[in-house]
Fold these 4 entries.
Entry 1:
Amino acid sequence: MVDEKENTADPEIWVLAERQGKKWQSVTLELLDDAAVLAKRAKWQVAVFVFAKPMDVTDKDCEELAAHGANHVYLMENDDFCEPNGPQKYWAVLENFFVGAKPRLLLAPSTPLWVECVSWLMARWDGTVVSDGVSFKLSPDGDLSVTRYAWRGEAQMTLSLGKDHPWCVCLRPDVAGVGKGNSRAKAEITRRQELSDNNEGVNVKEVFSPDPGDIDLLEADRIVAGGRGLNGAEGFQLLEGLANQLEAGVGATRVAVDLGWVPYSRQIGQTGKAVKPRLYIALGISGASQHVDGMSGSEVIIAINNDPNAHIFKLCHLGFVGEAEPIMQALMKALDPKLESSELVAASKGK
Ligand SMILES: Cc1cc2nc3c(=O)[nH]c(=O)nc-3n(C[C@H](O)[C@H](O)[C@H](O)COP(=O)(O)OP(=O)(O)OC[C@H]3O[C@@H](n4cnc5c(N)ncnc54)[C@H](O)[C@@H]3O)c2cc1C
């Protein structure tokens, strides 16, 4: 059991922070911006929880959280944090932290780890969780309403959570955008060494990337797609290697499907799937309108084609004129310099 903290007079919003390398994930600042708006209106306090390895997060890093609305930053430090482990370590810390105290609202990134973590916590606190959130609003009489994605992002719905809290909203990253922040704002920082919980119900033994051929294209953040210019199923074998490295889904044109190089489930376009990844890499694809119909909503499109006049170059953000195979090999080598040339040749031959 860790220290007790008296219940503060003002209700609190707790925000779970996430970092990538030395930077805050943009979703952390988005959550804080949203929390700050609500806190200002409702006269609540914002506390942000950071799970990190000892001394990985500096006081200067915390200033950025203060700039985006945190009143209090709790740095929970342990060598086991930020490893590929399950959520139990995190919810156990949160549950024990304020004995008997709960936030009015808990905000977390809508990612598998945090959705699972807060679901455990809310089950114990008898609270309500909404994942895939886009925005939320507190009515003057104290009801929280949350707008969330439904039907794989095809529709949105608004849920009213009523007055029964604690509420928990998991917000999709990169929806709200990050505001400017106020660099003069200050936050109280509490640094704590957390004990390791040796009674984990779940031990993660191995973490491996999903098979790119199995990634659901409608959910994929990144897609590497190929067309006739890959010249056969072997070309797709190499493309799969690249997709694997990028943890991307494999997509294809109708021609590639009709030729039997990939199954229909991978087809993108008017008579296939309509996708909206953050990154779409098109290899050996001409950019016919029926294909473009299914991928033009991608955030960033990179095209590789040996014909400088290919239509795909008119809509891509970054284009390379050249042969697909050597460019794929060069990309794979750049992503993993330890890859032997023989492995790349074997991959391109489908071995
Ligand atoms: C009713 C209807 C529905 C359709 N629905 C779909 C759909 O859902 N999805 C879909 O994709 N298509 C669909 N099509 C087909 C569509 O019209 C195109 O025929 C198809 O998208 C073209 O596929 P592609 O780009 O692989 O082939 P191509 O148009 O033949 O283009 C191949 C490209 O590869 C390049 N290339 C060749 N060799 C290399 C190399 N070595 N390195 C690099 N680049 C190279 C070429 O320059 C060319 O630009 C539909 C068509 C109809 C009529």
Entry 2:
Amino acid sequence: MSGTQTKIAIIGGGIAGSTAALLLSRTGAQITLYEKASSLVSGPPFCHLHAGGNLYPEISDEQCLKLLEQSIAFARLYPYGVDHRPTITALPAYCSRSTAHLLPRLEKLTAHYRTLIAKDPANEVLGKPEHYFRLYDKTTIESLKKHPIVPHPQTPDEWMIPFAHEVDLDTIQFPVILVQEYGLNLFRIGAGEMLALSQIPNVDLRLETEVTQIEKSDNEWKITATQNEQPNQERFDYLINAAGFLTGKIDDMIGVPCERMVEFKAAYVSHWKREREHLWPEIVFHGERGTPRGMGQFTPYPQGYFQLHGMTKEITLYEEGLVANTPQSCQPQLPQNLMEKILKSWSEEETRTRTQSAIRHLARFIPSFATATVGSKPLFGAQQIPGSDPTLRVAEVAFPAPRYARAEIVKVSSVVDMCSAIVDDLQNYAQIDNEHFDPHYPYFESIDETELGTLAEQIALSREYPAALARRCVPLG
Ligand SMILES: Cc1cc2nc3c(=O)[nH]c(=O)nc-3n(C[C@H](O)[C@H](O)[C@H](O)COP(=O)(O)OP(=O)(O)OC[C@H]3O[C@@H](n4cnc5c(N)ncnc54)[C@H](O)[C@@H]3O)c2cc1C
């Protein structure tokens, strides 16, 4: 079987499935990407490039180093989806841990970043390694408070000024860390995928098409997919299950071993009217997950919109929001009220209550933010976590049956490694052109920025979000 004859089916056009379609297209295989929604990357949201895992003090150093490595690969693949603004992390004054606990890891991350750049200078996508992180003591921040806000910050100090102006410095510990973890824009990434994949002749993008049945016969998969209520069966040599939190449903159709969890979470969109608009860094206030003091995350978008996470049960997390599969089914079952949010809609009341809780959560540290209001419906969704460890942040793919890859990403940055592993497995069954598999190929170079921006905004509006959420904070340089 040669590359041009190999037929690959991908179920799910989230970041995992659409990246697989893009990267595997260069192997010469014929790829069919099935997505039941009307656009790509419509699953759970993402806004943060975890380039070092600094949001997660509880995870291992190994996971953080992997997150750094994978985030660099992701930023190289999707340069147009990255917002180059740093993240400021502060530990609240009441935390028993101190910033000193985080420093050894930051040093390891810096050293690893240096090594990655030495291997390939193009890996330098987070700035100079010596500037990967910077510490700010109280005196320096108090002196920055006297500086006027710079509308388009360039230096770490300039990014720190809005923080110095607005954060109540009595509520946090020092030093504060500024780290080069950037923002991601899911609407722009989705739009770019739609445009790029529609130009690739060996990728057949089937939107609004749901895979409803799978049969295995000899060395083939017979896949039935339904579009406009019309079922259609086709044969494939290799199957990639990238169905996100519904991965277990596909596993059940095939009958393979599995162990996974699914977690429902939501982030809230607020609007903060200010006299003058200026750029903000992302700001994270650490805290113990699941307690009333859970981490608060303040993510800026243009035109006064801020996305908020609060890792408490009243904000981002939900009672019974984390569920595991059973011996009877690979598909973990979320409670009815959470499935209704995914499949139907949110009540205005819950949107208001939870968004206001999120605003109060952040206003504990940024008092003036208390005047923010609800900006739109929340960004929400369920994500899968393979295995039984809910703190797992790095996972790629499993191969529980021949000719079958099961995408299992937890963070979007794992998609490039996921695709490399799939190409390795694929070679066991097909003569593909693996030499041309290249995560660094400039897939989006020919895409017109205006067309991309317009489509990103259309996608945001069609999902009932403000167009501003589809715009970059930091303009392309
Ligand atoms: C609130 C929240 C915030 C998050 N923030 C971040 C962040 O800042 N950074 C980060 O890296 N990660 C973040 N994540 C995690 C991230 O969103 C997920 O890891 C990622 O989106 C998963 O992508 P996926 O492609 O695996 O799944 P999905 O995006 O869920 O894609 C699966 C697709 O499969 C389709 N599908 C399912 N079944 C079928 C079928 N039978 N036929 C056809 N199509 C089907 C679905 O419609 C869907 O589009 C966050 C998650 C949540 C919930």
Entry 3:
Amino acid sequence: MTTQSASKIDFSKIDEIIQSYGAKKSNLIAILQKVQETFRYLPEDAMIYIGTKIDGLSPATVYGVATFYAQFSLEPKGKYEIKVCDGTACHVRGSMPVLNAIKARLNIKSGQLTTDDGLFSLETVSCLGACGLAPVVVINEKVYPQMTSDAVKLILDTIFQEEA
Ligand code: FES
């Protein structure tokens, strides 16, 4: 059993996940999903570890699978994961001004996923299946309907106050 050394990854958690699904190639996606859920992203060390623990896999194969599927993030996600829907209904009803308001409030640059303090990550997603509530923003699975720039700024202000 591997103990933690210089790495911040708790490999015992990964062992538990591999054991719970079974150390088989065919379970790789499920294992990666659970690892991502646990760490909020797929750390490089975790992918290497999984690649050495399952017969028939290599770290390179695991990395290849992880980069192929859009559901996997190789970058740390923030404590607050913000998703702005930019599907057609949300776009038409003003998702872009809402997105820009969030970027401005968080001081997040184009192409940047997570704020420097690790508190927020921001991404656009396609239709969330709640078009009647457009434009929709989701923060850690909570759905915020009919968002406006002002409303989203208030929500972020509230989070900042709670985190202060
Ligand atoms: S387009 Fe945004 S929920 Fe459908």
Entry 4:
Amino acid sequence: MSATLAGRSVRRIGFGAMQLPGPGVWGPPRDRNTALAVLRQAVELGVNHIDTAQYYGRGVSNELIHSALHPYPDDLVLVSKVGGDRDDSGGWIPAQRPEQLRAGVEANLRALEVDQVDVVNLRLMDTGHEVPGEQRADLDSQLAEMIALREEGKIGGIGISNVTLDQLRHSLPASIVCVQNPYSLLDRSGEPLLELCTEHGLAWVPFFPLGSAFPGAAKVTEHPAVVSAATALDATPAQVGLAWLLAHDSHTLLIPGTSNPQHLAENMAAADVHLDSDTMRILDAARS
Ligand SMILES: NC(=O)c1ccc[n+]([C@@H]2O[C@H](COP(=O)([O-])OP(=O)(O)OC[C@H]3O[C@@H](n4cnc5c(N)ncnc54)[C@H](OP(=O)(O)O)[C@@H]3O)[C@@H](O)[C@H]2O)c1
């Protein structure tokens, strides 16, 4: 089950590194050895697409990836994102100006110890976050900076994240390679963006594929239709949620996040879970 991302072949199930730092994606992991083991296990299980950000933990996810996996396997595609940062108490803050995007890429290059980050997502922050005036940057100037970074060889491909349909359309001439927006069996708000990705052959890499770790978010693994399908298939609810995403559209690449070795093994095995047409119909109708 492989696909192409920025011209590289990747398995359709990758790994999201946001759950590796401490609680609230802030500070060191509760258990550093387990976090390192999870990363090594991911690669042993065939993961060759890892999603990260310098602002996860601040610096923690990238440091763990470097410690666990450097020198990296030749086929490993490292994907990061710029556009955000953390304040000193762990609050999420925007870093949207072109020079901040550049500084973000440079920080990733140093932390991961690579000459090029394979893909970097421009992560917009203008929904759900208060963006102070001095942080507002127009999309054209942001894309121009990302293109310059690509031309300089510092990034291999440009992705875009947390965008509206209009912003995605506007970004297409920059030859973007992937889109990261929230999307899951329970949150289909991104469906029009997925359709545009399909039309243009772009990788659709949903974040929060299981509903995220954030308190209050609807969890895919707790939905009755998912639990019931899992029981019938002798699979786990997480596997059903991930298998539905894989079956729903072939442009989808998964980056479920976990800090738990057992969950990681389960998530990778979701590739072997087949959902028949009746089950797909029931799951298609499920919503939060
Ligand atoms: N572009 C962006 O702005 C953006 C935003 C958010 C996230 N992301 C990326 O997307 C990735 C995925 O999103 P996410 O990690 O926030 O959320 P997620 O993958 O939807 O869910 C993670 C949560 O699910 C749990 N989980 C994972 N596998 C499980 C399993 N098999 N059974 C039961 N629970 C399971 C995890 O707990 P355990 O640790 O206990 O397994 C964690 O609480 C992130 O890791 C990050 O790389 C990108």
